[in-house]
Amino acid sequence: MRKMRTHSASWRAAAVVASVLLVGSIAACGNSDTGGGTKDDGKITMGFSQVGAESGWRTANTTSIKDAASTAGIELKFDDAQQKQENQIKAIRNYIQQKVDVIAFSPVVESGWDTVLKEAKDAKIPVILTDRSVDSADKTLYKTFLGSDFVKEGKLAGEWLVEQKKTASGPVNIVELQGTTGAAPANDRKKGFAEAIAANPNLKVIASQTGDFTRAGGKQVMEQFLKANPKIDVLFAHNDDMGLGALEAITAAGKVPGKDITIITVDAVKDGMQALADGKFNFIAECSPLLGPQLMDLAKKVHAGETVPARIETEETTFTSEQAKEALPNRKY
Ligand code: AHR
User: Fold this and answer.
1) Do 268 and 319 form a contact (C-beta atoms < 8 A)?
2) Residues 65 and 291 sit within 8 Å (Cβ to Cβ)
3) pLDDT digits over 23-71, tens only?
4) Residue 235: which of 212, 209, 214 has the closest Cα?
5) Threshold 0.85, pTM exceeds
6) What is the number of the ligand 1 atom nearest to the C-alpha of 269?
7) CA distance 49 to 146
8) Partners of 45 in beta bridges
9) Distance 213 CA to ligand 1 centre (A)
């Protein structure tokens, strides 16, 4: 009997150890609140869907995200959507299937995300919006939005122009190169700029069209603007790359960029800053692409179940030609 008791005691002990081990391994394999991708090594896996590689800004943003992930010890699954919303939705669905711990993405356009965001929420995978936001009414579909205030950027560009043209007695004709149709920075920069120039009725946007945030787009649309409008005084381009493309069209049309046509852009990437320092651009509102370190920090926090602010705005400035000359030697992107 005694022997029997000893046996059943050791079976019970073995069963307790086994169930502790089982519970432990389930907890390590699947994190019920923050997604199911945590592996035994405890490493966080992030699925990131990038807009594309349309501009110098985007290239710098991708580098910042990849570098920051490796510094933070976060395993990054990266997808380039080539400026197509359907590719982003596909990538996000793949990340859900792979049970990553966190999904982050920069939405190419503002609308049409509710269904896929709901799928991520149902799978208990937290989503972080970075760079661009979405127009979903349900703010619980994502944890936070890290990025610039694009309306402010457009406003700063417009306010600078209002100040420059405050003594203008006749009409000042402005052409506008918009970013990708439906993208938050295109919508918001247009809005901010329009609001600011409303202060001077002489300032008129005579043509406004998308150049898709690319150099080729900027060049092509500027050529059309120049053909259709004999008097263009100002170009407002929603990013440096379109402004740089437009420079070629302006020069080819026999005009001097920065003198015959005042050029205002957004971003302040190195090539844009060089054009500004050279007097070919006149003013840039900065938009920082260096979002990687803050994004990884947020990923760790949301994965740990911490509450993070719903909106984190990037700190930015503006540049005149003189300021660009000073800043260029230390410019990181
Ligand atoms: O969303 C940020 C914008 O996207 C940048 O201003 C532009 O260059 C990029 O393509």
Assistant:
1) yes
2) yes
3) 333 333 333 333 444 445 679 999 999 999 999 999 999 999 999 999 9
4) 209
5) yes
6) 8
7) 15
8) 75
9) 7
